[in-house]
């Protein structure tokens, strides 16, 4: 039943914003975004389990989740699909974008992968890179990096650096007229947009 998932069972819900963040198969992203839920009681974050890895089916899975969590877009609730470019094609990404735009779903793509967001906490990086080489580069800063480990607290003090570096990358692609939601935007990450939206709500809750 949908009501089993609904956080609208109390009037307290009126004061909160819900983020439904659907991530592809890897646990890395769910671990990271789940930490924001723990750090602020005025923010509700759901990260449902899924084994889906391609953006089209990820968006379709998300559509099925929206009713379960009784989201209210007019209230400010947000839905995000977080995925890596990996071996996806521009056609797959674009089809996912079209479905998402019709259903209030935000796409959050990392090219080539989510670990770029971690790397940007330590340095600005704008050279095209593969998943494997990106992890090797990240391991220069995070020894023995493990996708299943929680690095939130160790990265927290460097978050503003990552935000600045991610925005700098986006501006670079925009200047070169490269579409961000495409395979050509390597390297780039739109995680910065999701993080800033979360931080915005946290800041509003403090007032």
Q: If you had to describe this structure to a student in words, what would you say it looks like?
A:
With 207 residues, the protein is of the alpha/beta class. The chain has one domain. Helices cover 42% and strands 13% of the residues. The chain has eight helices and five strands. The protein has helices at residues 28-39, 55-66, 90-101, 115-119, 131-138, 152-156, 159-175, 191-206, and strands at residues 17-23, 43-46, 78-84, 105-111, 188-189. The chain is globular and about 40 Å long. Mean pLDDT is 89; it is low at 1-14.
Quick rundown:
It is built from 8 helices and 5 strands. With 207 residues, the protein is α/β, with parallel strands linked by helices.
Which percent range describes the beta-strand content? 5-15%
The figure for the number of domains is 1
Can you count the helices?
A: 8
Give the proportion of residues in helices. 40-55%
Order of helices and strands: EHEHEHEHHHHEH
Could you name the ranges where pLDDT drops below 50 across 5 or more consecutive residues?
Answer: 1-14
Structural category is alpha/beta
Question: How do the strands line up in the largest sheet?
Answer: 2-1-3-4-5
Give the averaged pLDDT, no decimals. 89
Shape type = globular
Radius of gyration: 17 Å
DSSP strand count: 5
Largest sheet: 5 strands, mixed
- What is the distance, rounded to the nearest whole angstrom, between the alpha carbons of the first and last residues? 35 Å
């Amino acid at each position: 039943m949908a009501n089993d998932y609904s956080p609208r069972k109390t009037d307290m819900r009126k004061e909160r914003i819900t983020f439904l963040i659907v991530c592809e198969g890897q646990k890395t992203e769910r671990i990271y975004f789940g930490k924001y839920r723990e750090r602020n009681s005025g923010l509700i974050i759901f990260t449902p389990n899924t084994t889906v890895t391609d953006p089209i089916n990820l968006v379709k899975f998300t559509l099925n989740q929206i009713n379960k969590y009784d989201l209210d877009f007019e209230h400010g609730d947000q839905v995000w699909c977080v995925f890596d470019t990996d071996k996806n094609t521009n056609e797959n990404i674009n089809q996912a974008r079209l479905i998402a735009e019709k259903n209030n779903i935000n796409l959050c793509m990392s090219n080539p992968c989510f670990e770029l967001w971690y790397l940007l906490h330590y340095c600005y990086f704008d050279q095209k890179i593969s998943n494997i080489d990106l992890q090797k580069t990240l391991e220069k800063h995070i020894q023995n990096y493990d996708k299943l480990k929680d690095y939130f607290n160790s990265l927290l003090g460097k978050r503003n650096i990552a935000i600045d570096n991610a925005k700098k990358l986006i501006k670079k692609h925009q200047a070169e007229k490269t579409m961000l939601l495409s395979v050509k935007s390597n390297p780039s990450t739109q995680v910065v947009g999701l993080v800033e939206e979360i931080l915005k709500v946290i800041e509003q809750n403090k007032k």
